[in-house]
Structures are given as structure tokens and as C-alpha cells.
Design goal:
little secondary structure, elongated
């Protein structure tokens, strides 16, 4: 389900910044539009240093390979 945005949020938070002290909770509050995100736009899974294969460079093998069907 996509994130929901109410009409009062559009008016009071996005169009006219009249509530600057409200807690930032939605992606729009952080200046991020979730509808523009692609499905493959995410950070891969991190592999801890003790689980990485031996003999690799420090920067290699830090992130798990991604396989899409």
C-alpha cells in the first residue's frame, strides 16, 4: 500500500508551511516523494565483517548480491 496523505496535510504542511513544529512522520515531510521510487532502488543487505569471505579487500563483499526473478 502506498503511504496515505490527508487533505489537511497537503494544505497545511506541503503547500503552505504553517505547521513547522509538527513531528516529521511521512515521506513527504522529509522531502521525499515515494511515488517516484523505482522497485530496485534500495540498499542491499549488509554482510558483517566476520561473515565475509577471507582474502577479499575491505570494500569488496560488504554488500550482498541482489538477484531479481
Amino acid at each position: 500500500l502506498p503511504p496515505e496523505q490527508y487533505h489537511w496535510e497537503v494544505i497545511y504542511k506541503r503547500r503552505f508551511d504553517t505547521r513547522p513544529m509538527d513531528k516529521k512522520e511521512t515521506p513527504w515531510d522529509f522531502g521525499f516523494n515515494p511515488y517516484l521510487r523505482k522497485l530496485d532502488e534500495h540498499v542491499p543487505r549488509y554482510i558483517p565483517k566476520k561473515l565475509r569471505p577471507e582474502g577479499t579487500k575491505k570494500r569488496d563483499g560488504k554488500w550482498a548480491k541482489l538477484y531479481y526473478p
